Amino acid sequence: MEKRRLKAGKLFDQGKGPSEVARLLQVRRQSAHDWQRRWQKGGLAALRSRGAAGPKAKLNAVQREEIATALVEGPQAHGHVTAVWTLPRVAKLIAERTGRRYHPGHVWKLLRGLGFSCQQPTRRAIERDEAAIARWKKVDWPRLKKKPGGNAAPSSSSTKAG
Description:
Layout: H1 2-13, H2 18-25, H3 29-42, H4 61-73, H5 87-98, H6 104-113, H7 130-144
């Protein structure tokens, strides 16, 4: 976007109007008018990027790296019973390590910025018996499964036109 604004500034220098600049750069006329106003007040410097919008980051690069390292170590290494990071757990970790408080609902933005993604653990019963499941699939399921041509009433799709 900054390159486009600087091109617009050079076109304004050449005497082009905002409508023509908008057409040449394929932007809305309103944007070109805004850029022209900024250019008239401060030249090309006024069209340069003003940095990221929004509040400044609460954590510096060192703190972010420390949090990422702690997350990779896993929640059990930090005193939790299960091996699942939850947003409240991560918020607590951040507060303990940095003194900065994050609402659990906003922690995911920080995690995404660190390269982490949302993962859900596979749910398996602890007492799951794979041998019993295999036996049931092989013996019981075929016995219980409905078979075509049995004693059941015929379906409408199996009747022959007479």
